[in-house]
Amino acid sequence: MGSGTTRSEKQKMLAGELYRPGDAEIQADQAATKAWLARYNAAAAAPPAERRGLLRERLAAVGDGAVIRPPFFCDFGFNITLGRDVFLNFNCVILDVTPVEIGDGTQIGPAVQIYAADHPREAEPRRQGLEFGRPVRIGRNVWIGGGAVILPGVVVGDDAVIGAGSIVTRDVPAGATVAGNPARPLR
């Protein structure tokens, strides 16, 4: 941006920079997402194709055959990309202040949480109410067991397996199986 141009808090958020989450534009986006989530979660009995249509209203991209079983929760939705035949089971949470990409054929168990939202480690920026985000990328044909948590900035490679209840704090290589808290490779 040129000199003298001030970036909005939303632009800072999307860029992964420190931002103020109480900003009016950000709050309006979250309010719109809450209204959309109420509609989506109320459509639990609707056919998958109808729910996929609702997903396409709010998410960045939704591949053919993608399914999210309600209830589902997210911050914005417009930062979430689902590949073809992605499946998220009941009660998944995605904090998508920056992009969250989920590759084709990935299967995600119930109550999995994916966090792109993060907080400064230094006390002063936290005192000022500042936050930031780090994108999360989950590859193709990944299996994530129920109750797992994927932390900000993590990349999960294609064909990886994450055990149920695991806390994933670091990148997971393609084809690896990890489990535990923190998640570590299984031999």
Automatic annotation (TrEMBL):
Keywords: Acyltransferase, Nodulation, Repeat, Transferase
InterPro entries linked: Hexapep, Hexapep_transf_CS, Hexapeptide_acetyltransf, Mac_dom, Trimer_LpxA-like_sf
Record domain Maltose/galactoside acetyltransferase: where: 10-64
Highest taxon of source: Bacteria
Gene Ontology molecular functions: acetyltransferase activity; O-acyltransferase activity
The UniProt record lists the keyword Chloroplast: no
Annotated GO CC locations: cytosol
Family that this chain belongs to: Belongs to the transferase hexapeptide repeat family.
Role: Acetyltransferase implicated in the O-acetylation of Nod factors.
Protein name listed in UniProt: Nodulation protein L
Source species: Rhodoplanes serenus
Lineage: Bacteria, Pseudomonadati, Pseudomonadota, Alphaproteobacteria, Hyphomicrobiales
Gene: maa
